[in-house]
Amino acid sequence: MTGEDFGYFTERLPALMFWAGAGSDYGLHHAKLAPDERLLSFMPKFLYEYFKQR
Questions:
Q1: pLDDT for the residue numbered 3
Q2: Which residues of 33-52 are buried (b: 16+ CB within 10 A; e: fewer)?
Q3: Dihedral sign of CA atoms 12, 46, 40, 31 in order
Q4: What is the pLDDT of residue 48?
Q5: Rounded Cα gap, residues 26 and 35, in angstroms
Q6: Other beta carbons within 10 Å of 14
Q7: Measured CA distances, 1 to 8, 28, 41 (Å)
Q8: 26-42, pLDDT tens digit by residue?
Q9: Distance between CA 47 and CA 38 in Å, rounded?
């Protein structure tokens, strides 16, 4: 599971995890998963601004 793996890594390293654009009627590994592609233009700037402030 993603959360379990992530929890293991964060025992030694500072980390940040969030889900972006994963809202779908289908699960993450389903062939019909349709992530919100509008985030492709939004997320790079969001992440840049977020980390610039840290």
A1: 64
A2: eeeeeeeeeeeeeeeeeeee
A3: positive
A4: 94
A5: 10
A6: 6
A7: 11, 12, 28
A8: 877 889 988 888 888 88
A9: 15
Tokens standing for residue 14: 């500072």
Tell me what pLDDT residue 36 has.
81
pTM of the complete model: 0.53
What DSSP state is assigned to residue 9? H
Q: How many C-beta atoms surround the C-beta of residue 21 within 10 A?
A: 14
- Residue type present at position 37: E
| Alpha-carbon gap, residue 35 to 24, rounded angstroms | 7
Q: Which residue has the tokens 């890594």?
A: 9
